[in-house]
Amino acid sequence: MPAVCTVFVGTRPVLVTAAGELDVATAAHTEAIFTAASSGARPEVVIDLRQVTFLDCAGARPLTAAARRIHEAGGRLTLLADHPMVVQVLRFNQLIPHSASSTGGADPAHHPPAHPPTPRLCDHRCRALAEEH
Fold first, then answer.
1. pTM score, two decimals?
2. What's the rounded mean pLDDT across residues 104-116?
């Protein structure tokens, strides 16, 4: 299944919901979406990957670039993921700490990327992985 992204613009934080496969075939599409979502001064972005069924390094590249842009602009990025393979690729690409563990299922983990100034809670069901240690 190709990636399907929904972006809620005009909200703070900007919410991007991705579903399907994030890989080499969808990287250009997601790069454009993540670039638009992470532009501006001090962007606040939530990227919800809980409906992503496949993520490889090519699909993670746009996430890494967005994390870098957001960090450099003094913003904040929240990544939501609970699929074990997606979490593993995020760890491999240093978007979440290697010591973090996913809670999976109905209680998704909040995965702060390697670049944020401060992790934060996303809603009542999510908790920062840093708070688990």
1. 0.71
2. 37
